[in-house]
Amino acid sequence: MDMMISNLQQQRQVTEQLRREAAIKRISVSQAVADIMKFISDHEQEDCLVVGFSSEKANPFREKSSCILL
Questions:
Q1: Averaged pLDDT, 55-66
Q2: Where are the domains positioned within the chain?
Q3: pLDDT (tens digit, 9 = 90+) per residue, 31-46?
Q4: 53 CB contacts (<8 Å, ≥6 apart)?
Q5: How many whole angstroms separate alpha carbon 43 and alpha carbon 35?
Q6: Cα separation of 56 and 53, whole Å?
Q7: 27 near 21, Cβ under 8 Å?
Q8: Which pTM value belongs to this model?
Q9: Which long-range contacts (CB under 8 A, 24 or more apart) does 41-48 make?
């Protein structure tokens, strides 16, 4: 009996999840791609991987210098 109730609760949760997913506003792939391309072109000048870094110190990917004592 407990297994039957548990299964019923699980099915209700699945149904509710499917209802939430069905209610999500969807757009076509072509519209999503166009939006992504517009976002990229609008923010191109802020992208350090495209335009580079203003100085060597601003680059978090630079090789770390090691301290050598003689």
A1: 76
A2: 1-58
A3: 999 999 999 999 998 8
A4: 59
A5: 12
A6: 7
A7: no
A8: 0.50
A9: none
